[in-house]
Specification:
five-stranded mixed β-sheet, Nucleoside Triphosphate Pyrophosphohydrolase, single chain, 2 domains, three-stranded antiparallel β-sheet
């Protein structure tokens, strides 16, 4: 008995499996706080991808539309998650893009012209890439690179799997492949460079030979702004000193996820990480420790809550104060009066971070 295999159907099924494979780590990173999808971007993509899927079917895409249909469902899922886990940085350009996308859908419904509709949604979907490209360029760690790479393969396979090749069946998928490629390349190139080193704090003149035997501890810290542009500082009522919120990164933990966890624990706020400020390396002979602190800017999401302090932090009388950035810098400087071993290290570290924030105009 002869069995005829439709290789285009096989390609379509394979590309659909790849779509599921691509989205799995992306969902995982969203829940882990690593990736923060943009609500308007994914809303645009949900509308345009759904419209393009209809156009693809209309143009005879047949098997090539299978992965696009599955992808549309997953895009809708990301859209729903964006309400809870996504960035709240919504610009006027995003709103304009959403409006144009809605106009394109109306044109499809009213005029029933698949060519005009597909052309419009292709352009709009390309615009939808812009916020993600900008965000990824600023912070390459904020996107799941495997997602974009696999989606490039999916787009190419979907094109090949089409029963017919014409403007309707190729244009949209080709645009997606190019957009995904741009994000993947920016993400890959950006990750090759480490966070900018602001300074090295070596108050005890630790030699390279001594430092080679030190244990290494990583920490994530942040200059966190509220809606009034005040920044959060932790104040110890018992020992009378101030410091930036943040703490140690656990083994295998993402820096941003660690920062989000520490901010929730120490200042009682959920935060959205905005950008990198830089890193500082400290050498402390007394503790035989090399500490690398990664600092970010962040903003409060939602209402301010109550911190969940450790027993040691409670006994030290820690509380959160919200003050202007420049005043915060002055408060950190007052820590020089605090006579413990760690004081000069904290002053040098947090002063440097706040000075970089001020130099970037973040106090305005």
């Amino acid at each position: 008995m002869n069995v005829n295999f439709d290789w285009k159907l096989i390609l379509a099924i394979f590309s659909t499996i790849l779509v599921l494979f691509a989205y799995a780590p992306y969902f995982k990173d969203i829940f882990a706080g690593k990736s923060k999808p943009h609500l308007y971007t994914w809303l645009i993509w949900a509308i345009t991808q759904g419209t393009a899927t209809v156009a693809l079917l209309y143009g005879g895409g047949r098997f090539g539309s299978i992965s696009l249909i599955v992808g549309t469902i997953l895009v809708l899922a990301i859209l729903i998650l964006s309400f809870r886990f996504g960035t709240k940085d919504i610009t006027k350009a995003d709103t304009a893009s959403l409006f144009v996308a809605l106009v394109a859908v109306v044109i499809w419904w009213i005029f029933n012209d698949p060519v005009i509709s597909l052309l419009m949604v292709t352009i709009i979907d390309a615009i939808g890439f812009i916020p993600t490209i900008r965000k990824t360029h600023k912070d390459p760690q904020s996107e799941t690179i495997s997602f974009w790479v696999v989606m490039i393969v999916v787009d190419i396979l979907s094109i090949v799997a089409n029963a017919e090749y014409n403007f309707l069946t190729v244009t949209y998928l080709a645009m997606l492949a190019v957009g995904n490629l741009i994000v993947a390349v920016i993400c890959l190139l950006g990750r090759k460079s480490k966070m900018n080193l602001i300074k090295t704090i070596n108050l005890e003149n630790t030699s390279e030979k001594e430092a080679s035997s030190f244990s290494v501890r990583e920490a994530a810290r942040a200059v966190v702004f509220d809606s009034d542009k005040n920044v959060a500082l932790l104040y110890s009522k018992v020992n009378d000193y101030y410091k930036l919120p943040g703490g140690g990164v656990e083994k295998g933990e993402d820096y941003r996820a660690a920062l989000a966890r520490e901010c929730l624990e120490e200042i009682g706020c959920e935060v959205e990480v905005l950008s990198e400020l830089g890193m500082i390396v400290k050498y402390r002979k007394k503790h035989q420790l090399k500490q690398v602190s990664y600092c970010y800017t962040a903003k409060v999401q939602g209402k301010k809550g109550s911190p969940t302090l450790t027993q040691d932090e409670i006994e030290e009388g820690f509380e959160t104060v919200w003050i202007p950035l420049e005043i915060g810098l002055g408060k950190i400087g007052e820590n020089k009066k605090f006579s413990i071993y760690e004081a000069p290290y904290m002053v040098a570290r947090d002063t440097a971070f706040l000075e970089v924030a001020i130099s970037k105009g973040l106090s305005n």
